[in-house]
Every structure is written in C-alpha cells, then in structure tokens.
Amino acid sequence: MRAREAIEVLAAHRGDAIAVCALGMAANEWWAVTKGEDSFYMHGAMGFAASFALGLALSLPQATVWLINADGSLCMNLGCLLTEASQGARNLKHFVVDNQVYQTVGALPMVNQGRTDYVAIARGAGFSRARMIDDLDDLKRQMPAIAAEDGPTFTVLRVAPETGFLRTPPMTYEGPEMKYRFGRALERKLGITVFGPQGY
Amino acid sequence: MDVNAELHAQLKKCGVTLAASLPDDWVAPLIERIAADNSMRHVRVAREAEAIAICSGAFFGGVRAAALMGATGLLTCTGELATLNLRHAIPVFLIVSQRGSIDDHRIYQEVQGRKTKPLLDMYDFPYQSIERPDDLSRIPDCYETCRLQKRPFVLFLARQLMKGDLR
C-alpha cells in the first residue's frame, strides 16, 4: 500500500470530519488529495499535531476530528497517547501513516526501524480500539466501520516507503493565513465563533 | 485571601473553560482546584508542549484555554511556541510558576530564574509577573492582551504570592 493510496481511502470516508495533519508527508499528501481548508496542516511543533487535534476535539464535541499523524511525528511525542486515552474523546480518531522512514528528508530510516509495534504501545496506553492495516483492499473493507466507530481509536496505516524525496508539494498558504483560513472554515462549517467581532 | 481560589475565579472571569497542565509544586493546588471544577475541562499532559498544542487546538474550537506549568516546563516548549504559535499567530495563555527567583533558593531552578525572561524577550513574547494578591485582578487584562497580540503570553506567579513564608 502506498501512502497516497491510503490517504485517498481515508479521504473518501471522511464525511464531515475536520482533519489535523502532522507536518511533512502526512500534511502534503492530505492536501494533495483533499485541497481542504477545513484541515490544519502543521508546519512545525513536530509531534504535537496529536495534542492540537485533542484540544480541537475536546472543544468541539459536536464535530468529528481526524488526526492524520505519521510515524516520525508520533515518535516525537509518544506521551500523547496517554493523554488521548485519558480523555476518552469519542469524536477523535488517530491515524498514523507508518512508512518507517523520515520521508520528507530523503527516506532516512526511522529510529528502531522495523521493530516498533505502535499498536501495542497504543493498547498499553489505554486505547481499546487499535489496529494496524497494511493492505489497500483490507483498508477499503475496514474503513466504513472505522469511520463509524466511537473514538478514541488508533489506526496504523503501514505503507511502503518511497525512495528518496517524496516531492508532493505542500499546501499553497502558510503562517497566519493558515490560521485564518482554517478558523473561518470552521466558523462556516460548524456555525461557531473562532474570531471575535474585530477579527482576532 | 485564598490565592488559588482567586486565581481560579480570575480564570473563570477570563472565560477559560479548558485547562491543560503539568504540575510544578507551586501551581499544584491551583491545578487540583481546576480539576475539581466541573465547568472546566481539565487535561493532564505528559509533556508541557502538549498543553501548548491542546490550548492552540482549543482556540480553533472557539474555546478559551490556559496552559499551566513550571518554569522548567516553559523552557522545554519554547520550540513549539515558536513554530506553532509564533509561526501561525495563535494566542496561547500560559500560567507559569516563576521558579528561580531570588527568593526561591533551589539550586536546580537557578538557570530557569536567570534565563527564562531573557528568552521570552528574545522571542518578543509578552509576560507579566503577579507578586501580590492585589494584582490578581489584572489577569483578565493579561488574557485580552494575549488575544490581541496573537502570541504566547506568560503569566508568572511569584514565590511570595504562591508560597508566602513557607519553605
């Protein structure tokens, strides 16, 4: 299964879910497939897309939040799994695109490459619903149930590493524009107020 | 005046309904007071930068949030404050024990005392020290400044305020 193929299946089952993407490959691939402004694409704070998504999910119990994480980012902040499990957010699903390399910097090997069992780590942190999927047809079969189940859930998408640099371009906006496009998209989509009457 | 009760009341006055924390002993009583408040969502985190990112996510949910930690924790998350909050102009309100002050007398806090504020100055992150109970009423102004300036704002809690004469 290739990363792009897995992302395409996720996007097809996304429904109204708001997405938060880890920086690099996960963000770039999600942008390439969805072109969605109702997604937040991390540009920094590697490892903390998970925490950002949790804060969003806890603040928006009426919405569904999908975290599109990656193995490199997860390893930066494994403690996020304890925090997520402790909060029990029913509206949060955690996906990890696991290609076992640091793809964005040229596919250098991940720490402890080939030996880490992220599902076992998640279960050990307290996730009762955690699984790994490494086959595209299997992902297509399971995805309707995954999309429908209550969170918190943890799904590892084991994909093949690309060789060298994956040159999917990033989203076409950044910095404060990312903040305002995402916030305004949530205001339109959910009828909430993110920014005050003077715009901040 | 019960300082922790007043701090809690001032946060409610700010409209804060979500708090994420990793305890330092000076702020631990405030954290437990918040944890016992059913009108506030409290998130215990494993690393202080999680609290920063949780509060940043909450901002986009239209929820007013605060991150509570010690000065050492603040030092650990300056990278995230820079690459998430500074980069995207996302406000985040931090409540931090001002460890390493001249009255702290803890060898393992002295670097934090000397270097934390210069680091914040370098980033141009605003901060305010609260040293006396009479100053607690300034907290809502601090919170609004954080929103206006769209940056991390650090509310330091001084030793005299939090610990009095206790050693």
Strand content of chain B: 15-25%
What oligomeric state do the depicted chains represent?
Answer: heterodimer
Q: What overall geometry of chain A do the principal axes of the alpha carbons give?
A: globular
Radius of gyration of chain A: 16 Å
Output the radius of gyration of chain B.
14 Å
How many structural domains can be distinguished in the coordinates of chain B?
1
Structural class of chain B: alpha/beta
What is the top-level CATH class of chain B? Alpha Beta
Largest β-sheet summary of chain B = 6 strands, parallel
Topology summary:
The complex is a heterodimer of chains A (200) and B (167).
Chain A (H helix, E strand, L loop, with lengths): L2 H10 L5 E4 L3 H10 L4 E3 L7 H11 L5 E6 H6 L2 H9 L4 E7 L2 E2 L5 E2 L8 H8 L3 E5 L2 H13 L4 E6 L16 H16 L10
Parallel strand pairs in A: 1-2, 1-3, 3-4, 4-8, 7-8
Antiparallel strand pairs in A: 5-6
Chain B lengths: L2 H12 L1 E6 L6 H8 L5 E4 L3 H13 L3 E7 H6 L1 H11 L3 E6 L12 H14 L3 E4 L8 H11 L2 E6 L1 H5 L4
Parallel strand pairs in B: 1-2, 1-3, 3-4, 4-6, 5-6
Helix pairs in contact in B: 1-2, 1-7, 3-5
Write a structural description.
The complex is a heterodimer of chains A (200) and B (167). Chain A is an alpha/beta fold and 200 residues long. Chain A is built from 8 helices and 8 strands, in the order H-E-H-E-H-E-H-H-E-E-E-H-E-H-E-H. Chain A has one domain (3-190): Rossmann fold (3-Layer(aba) Sandwich). A 6-stranded parallel sheet of chain A has the order 2-1-3-4-8-7, with helices on both faces. Chain A has a two-stranded antiparallel ribbon with strand order 5-6. By secondary structure, chain B is α/β, with parallel strands linked by helices. Chain B has a single domain, classed as Thiamin diphosphate (ThDP)-binding fold, Pyr/PP domains (Rossmann fold). Chain B has a 6-stranded parallel sheet with strand order 2-1-3-4-6-5, sandwiched between helices. In chain B, helix 1 (3-14) crosses helix 2 and helix 1 crosses helix 7. Chain B starts with a helix and ends with a helix. Chain A binds chain B through residues 20, 40, 42-45, 47-60, 77, 79-80, 82-83, 86-87, 175-176, 178-179, 182-183, 186, 192-194, 196, 200, and chain B through 18, 20, 41, 43-47, 49-63, 65, 79-80, 82-84, 87-90, 147-148, 150.
